[in-house]
Structure formats: structure tokens, C-alpha cells
């Protein structure tokens, strides 16, 4: 378990402990991450664009019980370009939350965190439209947990 004291906390990332100080503001390292507007993600009904349109996020799913399959419907969060959601069946029934974090000042990578609110198998794909790098995450049937990937995408 990560040590915690007062406003300071730590998180395990890539096998190492990273310390965060909640009393100090987090500053995005745009020198490494690129500047706003460099991303070319085009939002659409099934495409979630995050981090100034740098990351294109999509998801496909299937239901082994019924044989149904499809693509996730993107639902950005108003006023937040680093986090969004997906729904599969109805807009009021969210299935997946996805968050991107600029961790380049800590370990040289962008981070991807996601949490599933479904037990259906799905494949989450995150594409860095600046570098062309991409990462896919497979969620097996019955799994209700998400993932934290602190080495998801290299910014260069």
C-alpha cells in the first residue's frame, strides 16, 4: 500500500513509487507533450477526443450471452478535455470512464486510466494523433475492474 501523510501521497507507477504533493499545482509539461491544437482527433458519435484533440479513444464490445456486438458511443464531459465516457445501449447507462493524464514530467509517458461499469468484454483503443502511437486494452468477460497504465504512450 502507498504511504500517505497529510496532503502528500504516493502512487505506484511502473514498479516505482511516485510522490505527489497536493499543496503544489500540477503543471502540464507542454514542451514534451506538445502544444494545444496539435492533435488531429475528429470527435464523432463513437470517437472520444481527449487532451486538446491529441488522443482518439474508441471502444468495441460484445455480449457473449446474446451474441450482440457494437461500438461504444462517446460522451465527452463538458469542460473537461482529459476525461470522457462511453455508453453501449442507452445514453443514461454509462459503461466506461476513460481518463488521460500527462505524466511526462514524472516518467516520460502519457497515462491512461479507465474504469468499466460493465461485465461485457470490450476493447479500448487510444491513439496519439500527434505521434501515431496507439495502445489497446482488452477487458475479458466478467471483469468489472478497469486499469491504470502509467506507461501508456510515449510523447515522441
Would you write up a description of this structure?
With 156 residues, the protein is mainly beta. The N terminus is likely disordered.
Task: Spell out the key features of this protein.
single chain, 156 residues, mainly beta, five-stranded antiparallel sheet, 2 helices
Please summarize what this structure is:
The protein is mostly beta strands and 156 residues long. It has helices at residues 30-33, 104-107, and strands spanning 4-5, 8-13, 16-21, 48-50, 55-62, 69-71, 73-77, 80-87, 94-102, 110-116, 122-128, 134-139, 147-153.
Question: Would you list the SSEs in sequence order as H and E?
Answer: EEEHEEEEEEHEEEE
Count the E strands.
Answer: 13
Helix amount: under 10%
Briefly note the structural class of the backbone.
Answer: mainly beta
The end-to-end distance, rounded to whole angstroms, is 32 Å
Spans of at least 5 consecutive residues whose pLDDT stays below 50 are: 1-37
* Broad shape: globular
Please summarize the sheet with the most strands: 5 strands, antiparallel
- Average pLDDT score: 82
**Rg estimate, integer Å:** 16 Å
Continuous helix count: 2
* Proportion of strand residues: over 45%
Amino acid at each position: 500500500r502507498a504511504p500517505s501523510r497529510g496532503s502528500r501521497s504516493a502512487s505506484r507507477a511502473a514498479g516505482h513509487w511516485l510522490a505527489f504533493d497536493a499543496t503544489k499545482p500540477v503543471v502540464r509539461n507542454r514542451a514534451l507533450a506538445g502544444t494545444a491544437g496539435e492533435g488531429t482527433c475528429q470527435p464523432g458519435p463513437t470517437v472520444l477526443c481527449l487532451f486538446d484533440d491529441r488522443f482518439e479513444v474508441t471502444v468495441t464490445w460484445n455480449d457473449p450471452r446474446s451474441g450482440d456486438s457494437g461500438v461504444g458511443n462517446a460522451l465527452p464531459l463538458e469542460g473537461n478535455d482529459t476525461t470522457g465516457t462511453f455508453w453501449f445501449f442507452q445514453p443514461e447507462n454509462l459503461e466506461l470512464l476513460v481518463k488521460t493524464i500527462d505524466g511526462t514530467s514524472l516518467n516520460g509517458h502519457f497515462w491512461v486510466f479507465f474504469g468499466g461499469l460493465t461485465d461485457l468484454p470490450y476493447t479500448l483503443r487510444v491513439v496519439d494523433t500527434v505521434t501515431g502511437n496507439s495502445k489497446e486494452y482488452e477487458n475479458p468477460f466478467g471483469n468489472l475492474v478497469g486499469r491504470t497504465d502509467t506507461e501508456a504512450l510515449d510523447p515522441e
